[in-house]
Amino acid sequence: MSRTSVPARRPAGLKAATLPKWFPWAVAAGSVALGLGISTAAGLDSGIQWALIAALLFVAGSYGISARLEGRRQAKDRVATSLIWVAFLLAVVPLASLVYETVRRGTKVLDGHFLTHSMGVVADTETGGGIYHALLGTLEQVGIATAIAVPIGVLTAIYLVEYGRGRLAKAITFFVDVMTGIPSIVAGLFVLSLWIVVLGMGYSGFAGSMALAILMLPVVVRSTEEMLKLVPNELREASLALGVPKWRTILKVVLPTSVGGITTGVMLAVARITGETAPLLLLVWVTNFINANPFQDPQASLPVYIYLQYANSGGSGAAYDRAWAGALVLIAFIMILNLVARGIARWKAPQAGR
Amino acid sequence: MAKRIDVSGLNAYYGSFLAVEDISMTVEPRSVTAFIGPSGCGKSTFLRTLNRMHEVTPGGRVEGKVLLDDEDLYGPGIDPVAVRREVGMVFQRPNPFPTMSVYDNVAAGLRLNGSYKKSELDDIVEKSLRGANLWNEVKDRLARPGSGLSGGQQQRLCIARAIAVEPDVLLMDEPCSALDPISTLAIEDLIGELKERFTIVIVTHNMQQAARVSDRTAFFNLAAVGKPGRLIELDDTERIFSNPSVQATEDYISGRFG
């Protein structure tokens, strides 16, 4: 009896109905048209309600038509595919819109003058002025933070992967995890209480760098650790079996093999701290003048500059434009860092050419 | 500078697990000794105790004596790094350093241990690559990445890298198990040439290979899974494969094992 039921469930042949390749596009176009039509007909004045209706119609439409013409399994496949497309658009639309707005508003005052002048004698409501002092401050603060966090972080990761056994390693891993969760304002408060309140130092770029380094450290440790774990153990053994001491093995075999990934991790950590505002407000304060010395007196920085230009604009279009241009420079800076990191990762990656 | 190895009463542990128990044997200089036996019987573990690579594994621990000529490798004050310079090793899977060129791979052992003049290095690299029968195939692409060679070439590159530091003993842990028959033949021929200069110990699962390349063969076995591996017998290869003195060896070689 079971012998008769099995063939019955088989399809008649290997060929099955397939909808043409343009089918998803046609459904998408149809849903957008229908969504626009419904919202105009119903008199909805919101800008994006039509898009939500269109998205729902797209998912439901793909399923309905496909289930009818192709079968249940293909219909489920199409629903999954269309859901992923909808999710993709939901994620990309804000990003694209953010970049578009920043570029559109930021390019108004972004020019050579803007990049090479400070706000020294420019009142908030006047036009002119620039971000030179803030750019300089950000470069110095982030540079010092990187110089503190990268050696400590990479050495910690090397200890954890190559040497660490037992309690100490476990404790370090645990504290690195805890550090990952420290809010930036808390890191700022910590340095504020220790450096400025207890030790009596003044506001300076260096104080901000210390807070940034605290935020950067766990990211560097984690990413370096993952990269070192990816280095095959056979390479370490091959080197040890040649009579190379362990420290030279790490320096000459393990690190070069993973340097691309480590660089990428460091650059991502740099990108993350470049946009930090809260600890800098607490520790570096702000100035409208150029201060090239990160160890003394307040410095400006890009995130704080953007915030203050916006907050103190007092309805003036000039300050508002400067805030957007500052934001554009910040985004461009981080994007360039990421591109450089990718370039280094590709350049240093182990090659398998013949 | 081939040297004799004398092992007596050697136990190897992983943590508290005794993997290899009470092994005593002598490996003659300028000869090829093959280790055969079922998987998990401790051949590779024992091989790795001969250049102190066993202790690189977390929890790895060794008791007993390994004499290289007259020096105990596990004696007090012995530097494992120095031991590994005298006793080189080739692994099961070819493992050239991926960031280095063919040339740098061969020179790695020397460069990482000290400084050499460019001309000296050139000579040693050429000599080692010739010694590994690889020179003619790679002489035009010494600057290319070592990982771009074929599997068999990579393994010969690893052998060249191992012999470049002029060890006294060369340990090979299933060096052909990841290679095709032609590359295997190339490496077996090479082993025949290398034994003029080095003491060679080779672990293999391929009994024809043991019969082809080795002068002496050691058979390892374990009583049951979870029990330590032991040396059953060590004798001239011809005798092991024609008329072994222990029944278990004959059973294993004739395929009646287990």
Key attributes of the depicted protein:
heterodimer, A: 354 residues, mainly alpha, MetI-like fold, 2 domains, 0% strand, flat, B: 258 residues, alpha/beta, Rossmann fold, six-stranded mixed sheet, four-stranded antiparallel sheet, 10 helices, 10 strands, globular
Report on this model:
The complex is a heterodimer of chains A (354) and B (258). Chain A has 354 residues and is an all-alpha fold. Chain A folds into two domains: 2-106, no CATH class; 132-348, MetI-like fold, CATH 1.10.3720. Chain A is 74% helix and 0% strand. The longest helix of chain A has 35 residues, at 72-106. Chain A is flat. Chain A starts with a helix and ends in a 6-residue tail after the last helix. The mean pLDDT of chain A is 88. The longest helix of chain B is centred in the middle third of the chain and has 14 residues, at 118-131. With 258 residues, chain B is of the alpha/beta class. Chain B has a single domain (5-253), classed as 3-Layer(aba) Sandwich (Rossmann fold), CATH 3.40.50.300. Chain B contains ten helices and ten strands. The chains are: A mainly alpha (354), B alpha/beta (258). Chains A and B meet through helix 10 and helix 11 of A and helix 2 and helix 6 of B.
